[in-house]
Amino acid sequence: MWRSLQGDLPADQKIAEEKELLARIDRSRLPLHIAIIMDGNGRWAQRRGLPRTFGHRAGVESLREIVKLCVELKIKYLTVYAFSTENWKRPREEVNTLMSLLIEYLQKEIDELCANNIRINPIGRLEDLPASAQEAVRMAREKSRQNKGLTLNVALNYGSRSELAAAVRAIAKRVRDGGLNPADIDEKVISDHLYTAGQPDPDLLIRPSGDYRVSNFLLWQLAYTEFWFTPVLWPDFRRVHLLQAIVDFQSRERRFGGLL
Question: pTM value?
């Protein structure tokens, strides 16, 4: 697992490096599915003497920029960890801000997202979100349902253990009702009952902020995913960092447990 040691750069240096990285990328070997743990918003704000909520707002700009680059590169799937089942433990003001930002982002961006052929696919226990957030999520999902470009999975009130437990319950119900033989339960059956059913597993997981853990994110789906860590906090994460991750990804030999 390779780590980016590069923090924030001056704008002209970022532009120069971005061009150099784009030239190095093999467009025929791009990751099909990228997953990102958007971490470090609170620390970004605290280091500037600002409330944590300012960091979350700054992080929205990073998301906007990364989504645009994924569209340009024709990445097919992007999954972002926006709000975990554990995040409800945070102060009420912070949780309210996160919900407000979600609603604001979807309402303001949905037309542009649709213009770029992006399909919004919320995943998680959406029924536990505030009613206003549920409505915004429904609106974005319905308006973008027919889009065929980038699928943007937004993990909301998401926890992988909860996802797996729900999958087990659904499979158990099928067995109880006679629709599934226990002997036929295999990896595909389990995958077909996850929130990401029908999608390829992530090729690349990116975690900013310097932490080295998956934080209950896509535990089943990450079985053979390549990991890329950077100390850059999410609000400072820009195109150049995603390009660094992709270039590094393309330098690896992926054996999936076998031999080349």
Answer: 0.93
DSSP 218: S
**Domains of the chain: residue spans and CATH:** 2-159+201-250 (3.40.1180.10)
Residues involved in catalysis:
39, 87
DSSP 225: P
Question: Residues 193-221: pLDDT tens digits?
Answer: 999 999 999 999 999 999 999 999 999 99
Contact yes or no for 218/160 (Cβ under 8 A)? yes
Which amino acid is located at 83 in the chain? F
- Residue ranges with strand state E in the chain: 2-3, 33-37, 77-84, 119-123, 151-158, 204-207, 226-229
Strand partners, 153: 79, 121
User: CA-CA distances (angstroms) from residue 174 to 38, 107, 171, 178, 232?
Assistant: 35, 38, 5, 6, 45
Task: Write down the residue that tokens 């490096």 correspond to.
Answer: 17
